[in-house]
Amino acid sequence: MSDVTQPLTTPEDSDFVQFWNDVLAPKFIRFKHVLVDGLTQHSEAVFPSLPVNEGDRVLDVGCGFGDTAIKLAKLVGDSGEVVGIDCCDTFLDYARNDVEARGLKNISFMRGDAEIALPSEGFDFVFARFGTMFFANPVAGLRNMRKALRPGGRMVHIVWRNRADNPWLSMAKDVVLQFLPQPGEDAQTCGPGPFSMANEDTVRAMMEAAGYENIEFKRVDAQVLVGNDTQDAIDFQLAIGPAGEVFREAGDEAEGKRRTIEAALAKAIKQQKIAADGIVMDSSSWVISATNPEQ
Ligand SMILES: C[S@@+](CC[C@H](N)C(=O)[O-])C[C@H]1O[C@@H](n2cnc3c(N)ncnc32)[C@H](O)[C@@H]1O
Fold first, then answer.
1. How does pLDDT run across 127-155, given as a tens digit for each residue?
2. Residue 179 CA to ligand 1 centre (angstroms)
3. What is the CA(183)–ligand 1 centre distance, in A?
4. Which of 2, 61, 107, 223 could form a disulfide with 82 if both were Cys (CB 3.0 to 4.6 A apart)?
5. Which CATH number is 15-162+189-223+285-291 given?
6. How far, in Å, from the CA of 257 to the mean position of ligand 1?
7. Rounded-to-integer distance, Cα 225 and Cα 230, Å
8. Is 68 exposed, middle or buried (0-12, 13-18, 19+ CB in 10 A)?
9. How many CB atoms are located within 10 Å of the residue 209 CB?
10. What pLDDT score was predicted for residue 10?
């Protein structure tokens, strides 16, 4: 296995990278059951047809807890290799522990900011599940992903489609905004946000600017868990995502109105569908595939 696991250090973490590490990591851990379930629905729809073969070398960008990297490691087998990269140390600790517990030898993880640099090691395939929408400079991040590929190598990234088709994220924000102001220009965030790659034409132009060809979009719709029960769903919405951002930014005002906001959210959430594990809502993503040109 090649040694691409040294951290790609940056002189200073960006505000977004600090935000992932300091603010979002504890929340993502608390709601891992909701997030991993939801995100997996979208990757499972495409995993069986991913252009990944035994022996391939694969990079998983913004790998989070490492579950897709582990699935990719199974596809490439012992003769292949997977490198997962993420800017958040806590997620990487989870991923490393999981890999150790499973005794997998063909997978490693590194810390890095994909917008700044990625290992340019001629990977056969680059993957990202719900990571690229957080790039402040998406063309730079997407270009780094392309440069990590061998000539003719392929990539797939999965991003959310528009707000209207993602009520699991947008509905709670609409409720919370009945009581609290929109976050201001200087709001602390994790990057441009979940819907920044929803527009097909815009993302196609970004991908072309980053040097890709054969760019294709496939829509995937899925019902995703938003919480095991109503209170879990309320806590999730007030912690993470667009509603969580409005609530966090409103500070003391939000805490003062917590009971009223929770009651309004409970009313909206109780109208949603109940499945085996809890409450589910509609979500919709783009699975975007492309190739690095043969030079
Ligand atoms: C919504 S999570 C998705 C995690 C994982 N891919 C999954 O599907 O479970 C987004 C991930 O992207 C990572 N991330 C955001 N910006 C990044 C950047 N510039 N470089 C590397 N990782 C980044 C975050 O730390 C986080 O783990």
1. 999 999 999 999 999 999 999 999 999 99
2. 30
3. 22
4. 107
5. 3.40.50.150
6. 31
7. 11
8. buried
9. 13
10. 56
Q: What's the chain's average pLDDT? A: 93
| Residue 60 near ligand 1, beta carbon < 6 Å | no
SS3 string, 65-81, reads CCHHHHHHHHHHCCCCE
Q: Is 160 in the pocket of ligand 1 (CB under 6 A)?
A: no
3 state DSSP class of 201: helix
Tokens matching residue 151: 């000539």
* Strand intervals (E) in the chain: 57-61, 81-86, 107-111, 123-129, 149-160, 213-227, 273-274, 279-291
| Distance, CA of 212 to CA of 30 (rounded, Å) | 37
249 CB under 6 A from ligand 1? no
- Residue 59's nearest CA partner among 10, 11, 131 is 131
Q: What are the structural domain ranges in the chain?
A: 15-162+189-223+285-291
Query: What are 238-288's pLDDT values in tens digits?
Result: 999 999 999 999 999 999 999 999 999 999 999 999 998 899 999 999 999
- β 149-160/279-291 pair status: antiparallel
The Å distance, Cα 63 to ligand 1 centre, comes to: 6
Cβ neighbors of 99 (< 8 A, separation 6 or more) are: 66, 70, 73, 107, 109
The protein residue whose alpha carbon is closest to atom 23 in ligand 1 is 62
275 — alpha (psi -120 to 50), left (phi > 0) or beta? beta
Confidence at 81, pLDDT banded by 50, 70, 90: very high
pLDDT of residue 9: 47
Phi first, then psi: give them for residue 70, nearest 5 degrees: -65, -40
- Whether the CB-CB separation of 64 and 28 falls below 8 Å is answered with yes
Q: How far is the CA of 266 from the centre of ligand 1 (A)?
A: 29
